[in-house]
Design a protein that fits this description.
The protein is of the alpha+beta class. The chain contains four helices and six strands; from the N terminus they run αβαββαβββα. A hairpin with a 6-residue loop joins strand 4 and strand 5.
């Protein structure tokens, strides 16, 4: 749970900054732990628009298993996101991205530092707030 609260706070800061900059604070919702996941399964955080965020804060890494969980629990139409870290280490993020190869876009599995993902999440929030 500690990792979930920490991840929620980090993402909430970005979401709040975007909402304020766009004059949409009154439309913003909180990013919170998904309490329904215990009963019915699912991802860890709600309020992240269509990013289905799974959070892991464990000393023994199991990236393949965690990623499988993130993808299989991700509802249709949402984007699976895995945020993971161990004590004393910053979060890293795994998600699908697209690489440009000539004139083609190729879907690839990417692991990135938290700062890189926060750029993506900020742009995602901007796009979603424009729809509101």
């Amino acid at each position: 749970m500690r990792g979930e609260y920490e991840a929620a706070a980090i993402l909430q800061t970005v979401k709040d900054e975007v909402a304020e900059a766009m004059g949409k604070v009154h439309l913003s919702t909180r990013i919170v732990r998904n309490l329904e996941q215990t009963r019915s399964g699912g991802f860890d955080l709600t309020g992240t628009f269509n990013h289905a965020v799974e959070v892991k804060f464990q000393e023994q890494f199991n990236l393949a298993g965690w990623w499988h969980q993130a993808v299989t629990q991700c509802p249709e139409g949402m984007i699976p996101i895995l945020m993971y870290r161990k004590a004393g280490v910053k979060f890293r993020v795994r998600m699908f991205t697209y690489a440009l190869v000539g004139s083609r876009r190729v879907k690839v599995l990417s692991d990135m530092d938290l700062a890189s993902y926060l750029v993506i999440f900020r742009l995602h929030c901007e796009d979603e707030f424009k729809k509101l």
